[in-house]
Design goal:
The protein has 164 residues and is of the alpha/beta class. 45% of the residues lie in helices and 19% in strands. The protein is built from six helices and five strands, in the order βαβαβαβαβαα. Helix 2 runs antiparallel to helix 6. The chain binds 4'-phosphopantetheine. 4'-phosphopantetheine binds next to strand 1 and helix 4.
Amino acid sequence: MKTVVCPGSFDPITNGHMDIVKRASGIFDRVIVLVAANQEKHNFFTTGERVEMIRRVVEAEGLPNVEVDSHSGLLVNYIQQVGAAAIVKGLRAVSDFEYEFQMSLTNRQLLPECETIFLTTSSRNLYLSSSIVRQVGGLGGDITGFVPPCVYEQIHRKLTQGQS
Ligand code: PNS
């Protein structure tokens, strides 16, 4: 049974993330969507909120081989713990490549058997990122096309909290 881990900040989950998760779930036996700690980022949504939102989307999408978890330590430790065969990540543009390449090599340095598999984004999601969702939504823009419908309300509410 091949388990893979899709790690990320998911702050918040977008249609681009879900596209990668769905495609990974069609290739591998078990997919764990992992809300992991990125020391470089100050997250807008709490870990609990992000996990809960992703769980709702996975349930709404009907993906029985997808699980959701969180981890505050090194990704390679989690990979070892669950016996995952690989990390699966989405690649949008060349701008993603350097960062993802660096992480992939670092993870393999830390855990030599740790493979990273990249799935190229669907062209409709090329421009999409969590920070775009936060920026557009935070300024009252329409984010319905950016995030899964079942978490739209929750994301919109938190992003627009405190706006007059
Ligand atoms: O969505 P992001 O923020 O680009 O995802 C980055 C993430 C969370 C996958 C990365 O920061 C990570 O793997 N964090 C876990 C801690 C860790 O192992 N850091 C070293 C990775 S080279």
